[in-house]
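To: structure subgroup
Subject: Chain for Friday's discussion

All,

I'm putting the inputs and outputs inline so they're searchable in the archive.
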Amino acid sequence: MTSSKLLHITPETHHVQIDLVYATDRNLTGKPIYKAAHCLLLEPAEAALRKATTIAQSFGMTLRIFDAYRPPQAQQVLWNFLPDPTFIAPLDRGSNHSRGTAIDLTLVDRNGDELDMGTGFDAMVPESEHFHPGLPEHVQHNRTLLLGVMLGAGFGHIKSEWWHYELPGSRELALIDNEDSGPMRLM
């Protein structure tokens, strides 16, 4: 992974649904963090997303994206709100979202309904862990289905968030500061 070019992800070009929660007040901070809702990924992550989309479509599902590239300044806002390294990457390490290699998403069925994952996106609670004990069988099935799609496309997961996937080896890449040069702006 040597490219640092961020590519736009759109419903038309990638056959996904996009609901960038951090461009709204429907996130853990209760206020918009992004001024504009632009979904961007680094080229290798965009290629893996295309694979994931094809896998999901093979059994009648669509991916709904909640977050992708995140400027370091937005990461700072999240860390200031919840300085918990279980859920928010510390600033000295940086988030793989800020490297353009991480994506937050879920599966949507043929009727347009999100599969029940047991917690909402951005629920910073122990029950958001991929394999949290005591989850209802259908919830674990849905999480495992999403996990299979994303692993099959080349992404890895983190233990604490069922919605978060990233390319392996992402920590080796530099953070991308697209705040001044790209379409995404912070509030």
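Points worth raising on Friday:
The chain has one domain: 6-172.
Residues 180-187 have pLDDT under 50 and may be disordered.

D.
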